[in-house]
Every structure is written in C-alpha cells, then in structure tokens.
Amino acid sequence: MIDKTVTDVATAVAGIDDGATIMVGGFGRAGEPAELIDALIAQGASELTIVNNNAGSGDTGLAALLAAGRVRKIICSFPRQNDSWVFDQLYRDGKIELELVPQGNLAERIRAAGAGIGGFYSPTGVGTHLADGKETRQLDGRTYVLEYPIRADVALISARTADRWGNLVYRKTARNFGPVMAAAATATIVQVDEVVPLGALDPEAVVTPGLYVDRVVAVGERRWLRDGVFVGGVDVEGRPRKEHV
Amino acid sequence: MIDKTVTDVATAVAGIDDGATIMVGGFGRAGEPAELIDALIAQGASELTIVNNNAGSGDTGLAALLAAGRVRKIICSFPRQNDSWVFDQLYRDGKIELELVPQGNLAERIRAAGAGIGGFYSPTGVGTHLADGKETRQLDGRTYVLEYPIRADVALISARTADRWGNLVYRKTARNFGPVMAAAATATIVQVDEVVPLGALDPEAVVTPGLYVDRVVAVGERRWLRDGVFVGGVDVEGRPRKEHV
Amino acid sequence: MSTKIDRLTLAARIAADIPEGATVNLGIGAPTLVANFLPPDREILLHTENGLLGMGPPPPNVEIDPDLINAGKQPVTALAGAAYFHHADSFAMMRGGHLDVCVLGAFQVSQAGDLSNWSTGAPGAIPAVGGAMDLAIGAKNVYVMTDLLTKQGESKLIAECSYPLTGLRCVTRVYTDHAVFDVAAGGFAVRELFGHNTVDHLEKLTGLTFARLEAGAP
Amino acid sequence: MSTKIDRLTLAARIAADIPEGATVNLGIGAPTLVANFLPPDREILLHTENGLLGMGPPPPNVEIDPDLINAGKQPVTALAGAAYFHHADSFAMMRGGHLDVCVLGAFQVSQAGDLSNWSTGAPGAIPAVGGAMDLAIGAKNVYVMTDLLTKQGESKLIAECSYPLTGLRCVTRVYTDHAVFDVAAGGFAVRELFGHNTVDHLEKLTGLTFARLEAGAP
C-alpha cells in the first residue's frame, strides 16, 4: 500500500543534506509551509540554496532560517520588503548570495525543470540588466532571452488537503508556486491541513497528482478555517485579530 | 455585461477565413468538438491548416472536412489509423501536406504559443528523423532539440460546462488538448453541454479561465450523461449501443 | 483650474478608459487605486499574478482570508466567475499576451516606450524586481500611471531612460497628473490635457518635442 | 520445456518486476497486457498520456464512457485516487522523468539501448509517431516487450538499428519470449533465460556477443 504520510514534521524533513537546494512554496503567508520551515531550522541543514519568491520577512519562517545562518544563496524575484531586515543585513554584509529572477521567469524556469525542458526563450527581461550576459535570440520578429530550468533537491510546500497517494488540492491563491515546485524537486515534502481517504478528492480537481509528492504531513487546520469552512478572525498573516485573542 | 455565449454553432464558427490555421481539440471521441466541426464544414472555409492529434477517422468529423477538400495541411502526431482512409488517400495522392510532430512536442509547442515562449529545448525526438534539420543543443549533459510554438487563428474545442465569462470545466480524459489550444489561438470557440450561471463553477476547479475563450455555444448534453450523471448506453465513439437503439 | 489633477482623479480617469470585458492587471502601489473607480456598469476582470482572475475588492477586516491576497500581499476577495491557477499558469497568461490592460507605475518612460520602474540603480540598493518585467512586456496595452515630474521637478518622460530598464518599447500610454500621452511613432503625443496645461508648457517642462496626434485619432 | 514463452506469460513476467508504488505507462499493443497481471497486493499507478494517472481496468460494455479512454482509445476506468490533467501536463509528467516504468513494443533495440518502434521506413508508408518518442525518453526505466525474432527469423536485438530511431540510448531492459536482457555498458547482458535457452544459443540466434552480468547484480 502506498502511504506517503508521515507522522510529524521532523520525520518529514529528515535527511535533508547540507548544501541542498530547497524550493520553498508560498507568496506572502498564502501557501507558506510554516511548520516545515520551522522543522528545517530544527533539523539543522546548512549551506542551503533557497528558491522562493521572496527572501523572508519579519523574524519567523524563512527569515529565521536566514538568521540562523543556514542559507548560502537565495534565488528569488523580490528580496526587498518593508520587513526583510534579516535578508537586508546579510546581503549588505556580503553573507548571502542573491540570484534575482523576474517572477515570471522564476515560475517558468521551475516549471521547465519539472517538465523536462532544457531551456526556453523568454520574452521577459530582454534589454534589461537581468538579461546581462544571457543569450538572446530573434524569433518570429521578437527578441527573447534564453533561460534555464531551476531544479531542486527538495521542495517544501503547503496544500490544503492530501490523500495517502500524495494527491493535493490547494486553497485560493495559496496554490501559487506549489504545483510547479512539486514537480521540480527530487523530494517533495508537503504540509497539509488534513489527509483524507483515497477517493475523497475529486479527480477533476486534483491540482498536483500524487506522483510529484514524496512525503505528506498533516499539521492541523489553518486557524481561519473550521471543518473546512472559512471563519476568519485573523489578519493577512494569519495571526489572530486582537478582538479574537 | 460579458456574455460569450452564442445561440447556435453556425454563429459560433462565423467569420473563419480561408487559409486559417485551426486547432481542433479532442483525442479520439473524447473532447472532439463534433458539432463545431460539422458547422465548419457547412461554413465553407477552405485552404485550412488543421492542428489535431490525428488526421480524422471514419467518414465524419475531421475526416469529412478533409473529404470536402478544405484542408491544405495537417499538423498532427498520428495520422495513420485503421479507419483513416480519407487522409490516407489524400496523402497518397499528394493532395494534403503533413507535418508530423511527436505528441509531447505537439502539446508543448501549443502550450508555448499560449504562454509567450519563443522556443524551447525538448528532450523528445533527438537523434530521430523528426529532428532532421532542427537545431540541437547540449545542455547540462543532455541533448535537446529546439522546437517552436504552434499558434492558430482559431481553436475549436469541446468542454463539459461553461459560464457566460467563458470559464470551462471538462470531463475526464476529454480534457486533453482543450486547455492548451484555448490559450494558443486568436479566437477560441467552445462547444459545451450546458452553460451555467456565473458563480456556479467552483473557482478552484475551473481548468480554462474565461479570458482564453471567445465564443461559447451549448449543444445539449452528451448522449451518455443525463443531468450530469453518467448513464452509459453508448460505445466508445459515443454511438448508441445496439441494445439501446 | 490647477495645472495638475490629484492621484484619485487620475485613477478615475484611467478607469474610465477601461472597456467592458477587459482583463486588467493593476500594478502594486498607485495603480491599485484604479480598481476603486471602475464603472459599476462594466464587467471588468482583474488579474493578480499570484493566481486569480476575477479579483474583487478588499474584504471587511473580520473576513480577511490569508489564502486570498493580491500581488501586493493585501487581502482581497473573489467575484462570482473567478478562477484560481498556479504561478506558472498565471504568468503564462500575462506573458502570452492575454491581458488587455496593465497599469504600472514608473520612474521614467522614454519616447520609444521603454520603461524604468524597478530600480533607480542607486549604489548599495538591494535589487528587487517581482513581476514588473513580466507585466511590462505582457499586456496588449501597457498604461503607465505617474506624476509627470519627480519631487525634484525632473521630467519622468524622457528621451532615453537613465535608470535601469524594466522593458523595451513596451509602454503604450502614459497617464500623468498633467496630461495623457500616447507613445506614438515619432515620440510622445499629447492625447489629453488636464487643467490649463498647454502642449507648449508641457514641452517646456519635459524638454521634449511632442508628436502631433492625427486629427480624428481615437 | 519450450524455447519460448507465450505473450501472456511474458506480460506476467514483466508485471512481476514492477514494484509497489511504481508509476507506469504501458504502450499501445502487447504492453497493455501487462496490466492484467499486476499483483493485486501491490498498488501500482497506471498513467495514460491522454491525461489520467490512476487508470483502472476496462469497464463492462454497458458502462463504456467515451470521455474515459486510454492512449489506444479504448474505454478504461479510473481508480479511487486518480487524477485528470491536460495533454501538456501529461507529457510534462513523462518528459520530466516522473514515471518509474514505461513498457513499449519494438521493431529493433540496439546494443546501446537505441529504440526503433515507430516506423519501418518502408517507402510509401504513412508516418505516424504518436507519443512513442516521448515515452521512449521519459521514463526512469524503459522496458521493451517483444519477440526476440521477427516472423522472418531476424533478431530484433541488433548491433545498430537499421529502422528509423524512436530514441537514443533510452532502453534499459528488453523482455523477450526467449530471455530477459539488460542494456549494459558492454552491450546486452542476459538477465534471465526462459525454457531451455542458453546464452550460446541466444548469441547464435542474434549474432551478438552478450555482456556478462556481474555476479550478485540485482
């Protein structure tokens, strides 16, 4: 019997090596695999290359991983945010390498890795500094820049629901990078609110088929849902609103 | 108010020009836009280039379009079938041009057109006759062949349900080429079983967002469903089984 | 009358130009204001590149959903008829040219329609681009919403961009607080003057010579 | 004992090698038979390139669903836990190397693992390739299921393919009616002999010299 579920987040992230390239899903709080990131910090792997849209914010999640000195390089589209002070300091101190990638190229390069594409001609970035040194090509009257796949050893992503085969459904804009990262990593580790019996997910609505998933861990229902129904009571970061504390 | 629905298939296919490149969805009977193809035959456009996985079978659908002498060229992966006699004869008589494309390259080239990709390095076909004369490239230790997008003036596809914005859901393996073709054509024309009110489709399960769709025509429920429930009683081509006639 | 219109009036002016049925991406910052002025009698579909077409207005605070945000990471809602998709599909939608209109901010726009809006190239600044370069090259119509002049009084409309580029020859129209400009074959063409601005006055402010729109141009 | 096993026995032999949890694509024709012999105590996920993972057996005639077919356009079913996807996503699954096993027919397999299975190159034949080239290069393990000899008695295992190629260096193992061969560094290696075949006899039949498998090889 195929059963990709593991009992806890420590087991889920076991075996991640120093020097690994790790894709981390999420865009803002939406789709952030918060519990898996905490488990990765506890697990201790270092010299990591992280692929994420951003470079951490505040003092938790990715920012905490950076603050712990575990990250050698980050590949992202938007490292600089109001509250990205951890990254900012590391970057200014020359303690972290940055590969800046336009967001669409980032998503498409990750998709290419999962789809077996060796490279593709992108319309984005042509004539800009982010295409400096890259091959360009005129195709059918338009100029494109050659971009290569981004692969990873591990993807850490968050979905709403899984079954034991690893089929995933997401929730609203929390889907974001999850599906493409799941396909681009050698080992895809997923935190979900709940694991449902095989056959409970609508096969028309499965977004990530199970073959892309290696380990699934249930971390309990997100704070703003109850039995799958939205109940609110949180801010955009998912923290309880004052009147609810 | 956005309303992409039209009342009949003749209106749906109106204005298709001679010489157009037309993508036709479907793989076997599944997803075949049978009523739209019949309407195209009646509409009369000729000198067409057709993009489909196959080259017609039996004497109906695409085969009838071919038999009517309307098709100049076909781009497909598998023209030769047991019952592809119409194509076979035209091809042997030198009356139709064939561009043979491996099925995965066909799907990915159509996807590239919709996604704004100028070209991509494909792992498929390397070292074979179907890569003859094409540029190849060694990338990260593997050889790839450069493939270009396939765009179309028109896509004719079939889905299960639409709303008036053109959001589409498909049914089972009838999804096949529909989503990528919808994005690769200048005008996407869709036949559906039924049009439902805006908001009736689950936004998590919409496969083709409405912005890819230009015209929607309801053609009535497929013979093997009743009120959306599978009732069977047909063969794999959708024809009534003898005991049901 | 003043020589300038305020930001909300400008947002409303842009909104008035967006036709029924358009699919639109509003960039982070001031362009987001355009959403507030879209004519209620027109169905216009807002796209947010983090995976939603058919975005609705912000929810009341008690209904903030962390799983439903826009590209600026602000809470939003979804209209009936919305659809969710993943990041690669979402950017394919833009990069494939399927959006009708994109409204972006700018540091500079050149006469050729080059856009600089992601970096001032200041030494030591941490670079961040997000989806700016994809938005710039993706939409059928790329509208810029900006003040005509910087706080230092320098024109943002310029012969050649001096800041790092976001995209080449991508801007189709510039909505400023002084006037609306089309990017035309021979340079910027004044499409509409606000307040008591004149073409001569704007040429003096910008140091540019403007192309003349053909009579009867839309 | 015979020198050959029949096709169903061969299908069962292949099925026995497919491990629990494997994702598998069975090519059109004889490879489809493998599905009938998959051990019922193993969960194995069948992929069909027209957009389904978790394919089940054919339905009874009264339940044929024209919307639920395999790559051979035959009616199938879907298991609990199945997922549907579109054609580009389906081929991305194969081309991205996500399937564990693919079983294909062959006209010829070369010592280097080159496969010819889509065209005999006969003059006047109408070419058709379907998904053969994608399947050949996509799976982690590409197994060929074939008779060792053609009806004319010629070996399908060959030094160099003379028929048009489907894929280069892609085959990992060949299951024939005489024996099972691995594609090894020095050529084919006999993995298992059926009936009273001997390596010498197979070398005579094929005209090839076989590599020796290391003792203790899996």
From TrEMBL, chains A, B:
SMART domains: CoA_trans. One of its GO terms (molecular function) is CoA-transferase activity. It comes from the Bacteria. Keywords: Transferase. Pfam families: CoA_trans. Belongs to the 3-oxoacid CoA-transferase subunit A family. This is 3-oxoadipate CoA-transferase subunit A. It comes from Microbacterium album. The lineage of its organism: Bacteria, Bacillati, Actinomycetota, Actinomycetes, Micrococcales. The gene is catI.
UniProtKB/TrEMBL annotation, chains C, D:
GO terms for molecular function: CoA-transferase activity. InterPro entries: 3-oxoacid_CoA-transf_B, CoA_trans_fam_I, NagB/RpiA_transferase-like. SUPFAM superfamilies: NagB/RpiA/CoA transferase-like (SSF100950). Pfam families: CoA_trans. It comes from the Bacteria. Coiled coil: none annotated. Keywords: Transferase. Belongs to the 3-oxoacid CoA-transferase subunit B family. This is 3-oxoadipate CoA-transferase subunit B. It comes from Microbacterium album. The gene is catJ.
